[in-house]
Amino acid sequence: MPDIINILPDSVANQIAAGEVVDRPASAVKELLENALDAGATKIQLIVKDAGRTLIQVIDNGCGMSDSDARLCFERHATSKIHKADDLFAIHTMGFRGEALASIAAIAQVELRSKMHDNDLGTQVIIEGSDIKSQSSCSCPNGTSIAVKNLFYNVPARRNFLKKDSIELSHIEEIFKRVALINYTIDYTFYHNGKLLYDLHGGNFAERIAQMYGQNYRERLYPVDESTDVVNVHGYVSKPEYARKSRGEQYLFVNHRFIKHPALNAAVEKAYTDLIPDHYYPSYFLHLEVDPSRIDINIHPTKTEVKFIDESALFTILRAATKRALGQFGLATELEFNPIQEVDFPPAPKGYVPKQPQVHYNPAYNPFKSTSKDGDFGRTKGSQWTSFFDLKEANNEPAATTHEERQTLIPQAETAQPGTSVQPCLQLMGSYIVSTMPSGLLVIDQQAAHERVVYDRLMSTEGKAVAQQLLFPVNCQFSPADADIFSELIPDLEKQGFVIGTIGQTTFVVSATPAEIKDSELQSLFDQILTEYKGTMMQKFSDRRQCLCRSMARQMAVKAGTPLEQAEMQQLVADLFCCPVPHVSPSGKKTMAIIPPNKLIV
User: Fold this and answer.
1) N- to C-terminal Cα distance for the chain?
2) Residue range(s) defining the domain that contains residue 547
3) Domain end: 285, 312, 328, which one?
4) CA–CA distance, 574 with 569 (Å, rounded to integer)
5) What b-and-e string marks burial along 479-509, b requiring 16 or more CB atoms within 10 Å of the CB?
6) Predicted model pTM
7) Of 265, 277, 253, nearest to 322 (Cα)?
8) Which single residue of 210, 302, 430, 444 could bond 561 by disulfide (Cβ 3.0 to 4.6 Å)?
9) Is residue 136 part of a domain?
10) Are 135 and 124 in contact (CB under 8 A)?
11) What is the separation of C-alpha 152 from the centre of its chain, rounded to a whole number of angstroms?
């Protein structure tokens, strides 16, 4: 029997290894950014075209490479970070496995230009599919520039598995945030298709968060600072009132490296017990400094999963530090990123006697005395007030406004049929509406029902929504990538009654809204809509307008636990039964249940 085992060629082995290290453009971005950090760069530029399909380029001003290093860096397991096995437990750099550039070069066309600060000329290396095409001297700035072109050009099957550009760009943006957030002393620029998305300047951790997510984050965060023999924790956690329905802005770093650790994430969320509603999650940006010998970061090719020796101690310390921050700064109204010094009042001169304030009044003034020519004006006015209160008391009418005079939580829907008769309703546990019908007892989930009503109204509104002009326009800020997505949604939002303008690239001005939306909730509403929309658009064959209306309905619906008046409950029931599909919400949740009379007592 002939031999059947053979050694794979290096090109094939590199392509297999690339599947572990580079599974999408964002993975290549991560490896290149980390290499720039390890080179000691203070300025890093990221240039991306077509969400990384056509070009990924990282330019830094780091130490650069020599001629031999520029070629050797593309070999597998070629690294300057470790020399023996014990070095794996003293890792202080981002990369150390020596697989990144070899894996990227196996599945792309790569051009490297690098120059050391002491050299007059740099080195240019061109490589395609692990084959080095040329190496020559060149004139280039100090540092390194790596351009990855046509990713997966020789692996078309893997290229076909890439998502659409908006999704791939969101993954690249997330990788960029993970790297730039914690390395806050470094300047970053990020371009996509020639458009500047981020322009970040070095500073402190808090300033970097504000640069990433907008200046409105100044009032959303509490600082965390705890030092122990096991771990040092510092960073920021969100105030409980800014908790969200998704785990979007949760960043945990260990020794300047982003990690995923369910136990430590749970430690932070445990600190918010009884402070935020169920199924809501806090935002946090926390950095843990741990002795490298007490962690293992070599358990996964992407190095985002780590193991700790003192995991239980870290859990306890992290939870306690978060709870302490929430308690210590619970009364604070604003996080001071650049505190303003207190006003210094000079002391009063010696012998100074403060002047007592005086009140001047006319002791002969009588407010009930008539000042008009008609001497009976004062008596008439007094009699009018007396008769008014006598009339109120006789009719037993309250002085406060009636329910019909105030704005209800559930407005009259356009689809409601005139003269619709609804039985009296009862609100149960602040979340359910109970009424009777011929077939039995009707129980309605008020949040799911209102979500269905709002969704159908939004879907049926095509440029006919009535906008309510705001007295004072509201500014809403987003990150650059979210601002691009929000710009795409503006035409659909305007069809629903919003009037939105722009100031710069990341700030939007809302001057009119639908009648049922409060202007104080606009930023939160848009944040939740973006989160819901991005999550829904990840699915294939998604309709953008349906996704937007579903997200808006979920945010605009009256929430469980909200007290409703009798008229509001009856209106909601009437509107629900006017919907084409009243039995389920747009999310697929049942809106109602009918209990037959013979099932009421079992």
Assistant:
1) 76
2) 426-595
3) 328
4) 9
5) bbbbbbbbeebeebbebbbbbbeeeeebebe
6) 0.66
7) 265
8) 430
9) yes
10) yes
11) 31
